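the two lines:
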Amino acid sequence: MSAVASRRRGREQLDSPARPVAAGPVKKGWRWLPFDPWHLALAPATLLLAAPLLWMLLASFMSAQQLYKFPPTIIPGSLHLDGYRFLFEDTEISTWFLNSLIVSSVCVVANVLFCSMAGYAFARMRFRGSGITLGIMLATMVIPFQLTLIPTFIIFEHLGMIDTLWSLIVPSLVTPFGVFLLRQFFLSLPPELEEAAYMDGCSRWKILWTIVLPLARPALATVAVVTFLLTWNDVSWPAIAISSEAHNTLPLGVASFRSRSEQNPSAIMAANVIATLPVLLAFLAAQKTFVRSIASGAVKG
Amino acid sequence: MGAIHLNGVSKVYEGGVVAVDDVSLEVRDGEFMVLVGPSGCGKSTLLRMIAGLERVSGGQVVIGDTDVTHVAPPDRDIAMVFQNYALYPHKTVRENLAFGLKQRKAPKALIEERVADAARMLGLEEMLQRKPSQLSGGQRQRVAIGRAMVREPSAFLLDEPLSNLDAKLRTTMRGELARLHERLGITTVYVTHDQVEAMTLGTRVAVLRGGVVQQCASPQELYRRPRNLFVAAFIGSPAMNLVEARIEGGCVRFAGLAIPLADGSPLRGAARDVILGVRPAAFTADGPRADEALPRIEVVPDLVEHLGDEVHVSFGLDATPVQGDAVLAAEEDVHATRLLVEDAPRARFVAVLDGRTAPVAKQPMSLRVDNEQLYFFDPASGEALGLAAEPSEQPAAA
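prediction for all of em together
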């Protein structure tokens, strides 16, 4: 008899005594499973969440006939690239993608940079009116976007930025959410770290760059991912600020293209795949630090 | 070079809270000065003012021959070790040690040499590539000290550096700190609330209360000749026994007892109310080995604690315990637990006896009191009266 088998038998003998089954820990009954029993509940939930994404991906490789077939085909018999071909040949999706990439990237870099500077100032520097300024900044978070839409439009029209990518970039260079999140994170860092660096001869700038920001990587990743998601997926403001097709962002382009391509569902799905892919990649890239940041926030309260 | 002079230094926070009040103190070159006191006494604020991390509201801070009151911390040529070590978590031990010199743009060869020296001296050679999270508390402490050492500053400032360590490691590190200071000979200012640390490490100890230096002297002097009630109550473990008493006819009277004053006592002719202080070690168990010339008292121990070398015997006496502000402030930190079991308005006494004696709780016993080790304080001001003279200066007991 192998050692494993004898160990298992030994364990069964230990478990078997007269103890009633119901009184024992629930886990014991699931010991034969090679994984945690919770996975039995989590796996279907994951499938449920992933189903729309999978369907989108599969549908993008189907023809219109396969898509309209009833009962629907889950796994297509053959792959069709018609949707993708149509997108790249008959629309300006490359331009839209590039526009979105420019807007989102600039906003991510700007937010990480400016929010960390503002957040650090609010967390650590004492200046007249800092409390009121922070309060006013946070108050802007509760004002719905619809209320500021028209004034923002008027301002950007006066600045001559309407229908340019600047009109999408400038309003999102700094977000109160980012400033607040980083401020809270910086507050949780022990001030002695900065004092030690100060005594070691660092200036404020150097403390921020060499000590504080490397330690704030999880929070910075959160700000980066959230900013990317918000700017990449934004449709409302681009729909108002952008009128020429050459300046469309990807979601805006896809939205306008969808309304005139109802006969080409696979192209719509392909466009959605292209629009979703960068978001997924951004999340996956920052996932480790992003999740760590959420977890640390939860533990520290 | 590394002497520190504080001339009338004050710190007043917004709202008028005075943290440090007109402190004048001289830390001599190469001296190990300990600032000790209960929580909120201003000791850390004073240290931070020397470091330059806290602005000085009034007075002058001089390091060496330079007035550094308005000089930024990096330019004061001092290094600080923080209570929580403040090691940079994302840097290795080597990078942590080298950081200060790097910021000062020291030559690479010098940085490497100093880091290697510090690592060798502190036994950190094996862990130079590790991050702080991979080190134990004691190792982190060494890195923090090493980081201060590599800069070869003119003074070290240490802010409760041992308080995060467990009791055993604290004792070990205490010894190592003392040895390190002896070897380096750098002026050191050390803040602690632990009077045992203060007494064992300090060349001199400054006892603070409410932002005011109560007494600054050598540990022996603080213990033997406390200037006031607060210092008397704060220094010594177990703490000094304090009780309201009256001096009359060459005796000090309390709880129905009359203990004759020592021959040389300047208070022998006085007739006044006082606060009497008796060190726990001033008691000895009566017996064949006891000095029969010493006055004897009868007590009933209510708690006996055997610690091996010594026995702590607690007993109550029918006298009014001293509960002045000074005593409560001193007890807040040191003996807070004792107050939890204070059940009656009786004066509680603790005697530290030789471990070979075998007192039994609730069994009456006789104690001899060394009347040369009695301390007297003014009940109103708390100032010491006729300081107990050093035993060597005393005439032979009658």
